[in-house]
Amino acid sequence: MIASPPPDLVGRQRECAALEDLLLGLREGESRVLVVRGEAGIGKSVLLRHLAARAARVRVTWAHGIEADMELPYASLHQLCAPFLYELDALPEPQRDALRVAFGMAAGDPPDRFLVGLAVLTLLTRASESRPVLILVDDAQWLDQVSLQTLEFVARRLLAEAVAMAFAVRDPEGQTALDGLPALRIGGLDTAAAGELLEAAVGGRLEKRVRDRFVAEMHGNPLALLEFSRGRSAAELAYGLDSSGHPGTQGPVASRIERDFASRLGALPAATRTLLLIAAAEPVGDPCLLVRVATALEITPQAGPAKAAGLIEFGESVRFRHPLARSAVYHGAEPEERRAVHRALAEATDPVLDPDRRAWHAAEAADGPDEEVAAGLERAADRARQRGGIAAEAVLLERAAEVTPDPRPRGRRALAAAEAHFSAAAPDRATELATVAELCPLSALDHARLARLRARILFARSRSDEAAPLLLDAAAQFTAAGSPLARETYLEAISATIFAGRVHGPTGARAAAIAARGSGAPPSGSPAADLLLDGVAALLTDGYETGVPALRGALDLLAHEELTTREATMRWLLLVPVALEAFIHYAWDLHAWDTLASRAVRLARDIGALGALPPALIYAGGVHIHYGDFAEAARMIDEADVLAAATGHAPHTYAALVLAAWRGEADLAAGIIEEARDRAEQRGEVSLLGAMGYIQGVLFNGLARYEDALEAARTGIEHDGFNFTGLSLVEHVEAATRCGRLDEARASLARLVELTRAADSGWARGAGARSQALLAHGDRADRLYRTAIEEFGRGGVTVEVARSHLLYGEWLRRSQRRSLAREHLRRAHSMFDGMRAHAFAERARRELLATGEHARARETGPTSALTPQESQVATLAADGMTNARIGAELFISPHTVEWHLRKVYAKLGITSRRALPGALGSTAVTDVRDGGPVPAG
User: Fold this and answer.
1) 8 Å CB contact between 521 and 487
2) In degrees rounded to 5, what are phi and psi of residue 262?
3) Per residue in 225-241, pLDDT tens?
4) DSSP per residue, 495-547
5) pTM, to two decimals
6) Phi and psi of 464, rounded to 5°?
7) Is the peptide bond before 172 cis (omega within 30 degrees of 0)?
């Protein structure tokens, strides 16, 4: 039964029902998330307090955002988690260590904020095992940035835990905060409810005309109705606000409420106003600190008048009646009054226990540049960085630059602030601080850092090739300064041109490689990175014959280089995409692709680098597509998409498109392809245009739409990109031969032979042999098809083995060798059907039918009903992993793991994890070597 709303929630039946539903689900062990949105004073905080009051037999913990310029990393998150830290030692070691560093309880490498998020998720899950947990966050838009980001991550990962989260977010200030989570939007009260609230506040009936006019002026805002009627009788209100000397009825409701609060300050004693200013300047709300500062300022705390004016509440902590009251107090004071209060707060704050707040108050107390204050802020920024609070580091460094008297250190600090803002995904602020740094005298090394930062900002905004010259200029400056950052920046410049897509021209990858080779840049400190730069540069400048062997020389170090710090691991994860693109598209080495992608996934999981994990999973998924294990590829792509959504990143559509193309899912691929093509053209991402050509070539060749495949593949081979040219050439040769465009096919074959000659891998040799077979006749064609099957098998490229069987079978049928054709077509159909490559399987079925044989489709096994995440959880459980370890591996809670397993058991018709290996193994995939069944997974 839903209780009636209390008097202060008149007219909020719909909202109270939504909160009751949240509590009902929570008590039944379900995870719930709700974001309550609305303007200031609309009643969000009252609803949260009502929710807390109704949460019997539930553990409730609060965090309150406070509007302040000061940003202390993880401060709000620490406040929320404090009641549950007794569970800290029970967390997996990486999570425990990350949380301890984030909360300043231990020293260590700066933790990844997503690993901190997973630690919080695990902490809350463990706490909820004894009693459901309700997290309430008021004014979430004012939490420190990293706390808000972490809580959003937790909210998106909740699934099967007895944990609910409710946030109150003020609009318009918080319009982008927690976007995409379930929301409850609060508007003004309707006329009847607003009138009822107003009459209850004034203690009497109002004439309908007067009441309705007042309600209309306040737009049904409950706080406005209560505050503007405060201390006024029904008779006084009958004459209107303007006639009663009220401080204004024009402008937004929030501004009018703030002016109303401000109007009450003038009648208060001076000591009370100062006491309020102390409380407004120090958001902690510590009554003892308030008294110490008041004593230092030689005032007698007189709180009574402030409480009577409805501005502040005193208890275990000091809290303003509403954030607008705090704002009115702080902004209504004279600048010198604010500086005096901040000075007293700085002196009263413990320099050992709370050095960061002390540094900030000292900065706010400064009436001009002060190097001692600036140095204190810089030290606070360093502490924020060590705890993983990049946004806080940026704010502290920016303030340090503002109060630095000497232009040289001011420039250095402004540059550091700009770099931190860029890392915190605030490129506009980074640009502003970069301009400040540019106006100051900088060292040669700092000039190079500034040039690199500007290039990175440009590349982040548009993946065009305009960033490459700026990166090359920065790399040259690093070289002149003798910095180990030079080679890293040259590699970054080449990477920018690769993903912008152009090889030739003054801003292409080849020009960047020539500059890198002739630079004489000193070693970077990472032998793997140096060898990779040498290999990629040789590939682009000397050609395939020299470049591919040089590239292979970097593989062993990339695969096995010891990475002793988190920073070294992150640098490896940032450079490996360039290595992967080179090994895929020039070395044609699926085994190297597998080695590097698997290591990237493992390293990203080990250090909790959830920003780097999705692209690593996408590369690993691509490996499994070529192995013919589409189910495993789908699991990896799905995990990447889920993590990207949880971390606020755009989804990686490329791998999903490749998978859809091989499956022949034309309807699914069409919309995504057009969207990706539009985005590529808008952002100048030529490499994505090349990828679309290859993807559509595979799709249309599989569907036997050869004219469409020819046109698509032509796009892929004409885009002047670093990647996808070779793969597109393979599609173009097949489509051209099927369309009778033999001259086009021969031209593409010649390019393909040149491109693959140096690779000398099974994949490369198979691609060359099969493409030649398509243009050959008689015994030579027969021999080339057989060679292609053998070489693709040696390279492990299962999808191409199956496709070679299909093409060979088609050729044999046309050559009237039906018996042998059936053997290869049967094999192709079996392999493609097992992979669920529907279009290619249908091609094989039609060809078999033409030989007089009917193909039997593989029966759908029970595992096909599993979602990608269920399949992944089941596979790990079948391998013997515990729920806790699976949760750590997939960045979900053990409760969510168990929830998935219960669904798996029901779908597979089993009752325990002991039966998983047999149930999963009942579905087979085809082995490229002998065609026999092997266990899935």
Assistant:
1) yes
2) -60, -35
3) 888 777 666 665 655 54
4) HHHHHHT--SSTTSHHHHHHHHHTS-PPP-S-HHHHHHHHHHHHHHHT-HHHH
5) 0.79
6) -80, 170
7) yes
